[in-house]
Amino acid sequence: MRDGVIHVAGIKDAEEAGMLIDCGVSHLGFPLVLDHHKEDLSVEAAAKIVSQFESRATFFLITYLNQAADIVSLCRKLHVDMVQMHGDISLGELKRLRAEQPGWRIVKSLVVTGDNTGALIGDIERFAPWVDAFITDTYDPATGARGATGKTHDWGVSRRLVEASPKPVILAGGLNPNNVHEAICTVRPAGVDVHTGIEGDDGRKRRDRTARFVAETHKAFAEID
Hints:
The structure is a single chain. This protein is α/β, with parallel strands linked by helices. The chain has 8 helices and 9 strands. The two termini are about 15 Å apart.
């Protein structure tokens, strides 16, 4: 995974996917089989978007599934070979997933609750041999959501996770065009992930916010090279 990668989660339809790609987004994710959030579209609709744009971007599954067989089945329905796992998957199931699909890109979440830095570093040590990257995110105690909260967390924690990880770490959690530059310079991640931070009041991704987010991201990564 090259430094400076931009992930956008929560693609709603083909029009939105095309706009994001035109703005320079390289990785587009579909949250499916969730716990605290409503899905934006069906598996069938997501698969059609992948088929339409697969030559122009990398698509991936975002899920809370924690059984290797279920994850493989859903990825095959989407025709993707990259998965971002936000659930509490066991090391055994993760090893099973890696053994069954050695060429897939596997990203494991590190959800920051505010006081769990040591536990997250322990997760890095356990899971690093079996994943391609980690992604930080923010826990919302009000809802129990572990991502897509629109909330930031202590970037000092994410910086420590970057320093502790032998694998790339993607920064997520409340990022938007106004704070992504500072976040990158503070954390020095391998990439960034945005969901609600480029959406309008109607929940749709906006071209102007996306273009600004991409520009600020590229500017920050150029400065920390």
